[in-house]
Specification:
The protein is of the alpha/beta class. The chain has one domain: 2-Layer Sandwich (Nucleotidyltransferase, domain 5). Helix content is about 45%, strand content about 15%. The protein has 11 helices and 5 strands. Strands 3-2-1-4-5 form a 5-stranded mixed β-sheet, with helices on both faces. Strand 2 and strand 3 form a beta hairpin. Helix 1 crosses helix 2, helix 7 packs across helix 9 and helix 9 packs antiparallel against helix 10. The longest helix is centred in the C-terminal third of the chain and has 26 residues. It is globular and about 60 Å long. The model has no long low-confidence stretch (mean pLDDT about 95). Pfam families: DNA_pol_B_exo2.
Length: about 270
């Protein structure tokens, strides 16, 4: 496994101000949101808004440094503006060059970060340079689909075939991990409106943790981890989560769901678990 590693996820809302500007709308907020949704349905038949109109309200990550130490973090609208969230996240790539791991990051998270960083006039060569500055990134950069500086697990596990794409929640459950827990609905708008910041960051970090556990299984499949080392990383993750009170529920649900498959049934059978 190539360290350091950064597993990440973003949460977004529709940027009503930009949407009003783009479509020349002069409406109060509730009517504006409804109008943007209606316009999008007319364009595509779906509610999912175009990527530049996704305003970032949270970026969460799990960093594993060169010594294998784990650290969960979140930058959210509780403390930072969108521009500040992006600035803090993008600064990671100026200091380090981690292997980036995501679920659907190449089609959603990274393009949204690109559009929103441009909107705020930010510079992020550490993430977006393709060899113009650092020639080593000419053929292996974070945008290259077929190299592993950025591993979009949804993409690589589908063999780069969109017909094979799977949902993160489904794959997590299939492999014996917690998934989204609860009713599985998308509650981000409600969290932000009610200023339930703990729920927002826990939700985003939960997706990060599921992605990390799937990534470990993918490395095992590819032979980049043997069974012994895979087990050590699973135990290290369990021990780390015991120090994170906000993820007690994630750990408890993992304990239960691990019993659903033969392979994960041993996750919590170790004396250190």
């Amino acid at each position: 496994m190539r360290l350091p590693i950064l597993i990440f996820d973003i949460e977004t809302l529709t940027d009503l101000k930009s949407g009003a500007h783009l479509y020349h709308l002069d409406l109060p907020e509730p009517a504006l949101e409804a109008a943007l949704t209606k316009l999008r349905r007319q364009e595509t038949g779906m509610d999912f808004q175009r990527l530049p109109l996704h305003e970032i309200v949270c970026i969460s990550g799990l960093g594993i440094d060169e010594n294998g130490m784990m650290k969960l973090f979140s930058f959210s609208r509780e403390q930072y503006s969108e521009a500040e969230i992006l600035t803090r996240f993008l600064a990671i790539f100026d200091r380090k060059h981690p292997t980036l791991v995501s679920w659907n990051g190449s089609q959603f998270d990274i393009p949204v970060i690109l559009y929103r960083a441009m909107y705020h006039g930010l510079s992020a060569p550490g993430l977006f340079d393709q060899g113009e500055i650092d020639q080593q990134k000419r053929y292996n950069n974070y945008q290259n689909r077929y190299h592993h500086r950025h591993v979009d697990l949804m993409d690589v596990m589908a063999m780069f075939n969109g017909r094979n794409f799977q949902k993160l929640d489904d794959m997590a459950h299939l492999l014996g991990f917690p998934g989204k827990r609860g009713d599985g609905a998308y509650h981000v708008p409600e969290y932000v409106k009610a200023q339930q910041w703990q729920q927002l960051t826990s939700y985003c970090e939960g997706d990060v943790l599921n992605t990390w556990l799937i990534y470990l299984r993918w490395l095992l499949l590819k032979g980049q981890l043997n069974h012994h080392d895979h087990g050590l990383w699973i135990q290290a993750t369990i021990q780390y989560l015991k120090t994170q009170p906000q993820h007690a529920d994630f750990l408890n649900v993992w304990h239960e769901t691990s019993l659903q498959t033969v392979f994960t049934a041993s996750d919590f059978s170790s004396p250190t678990s």
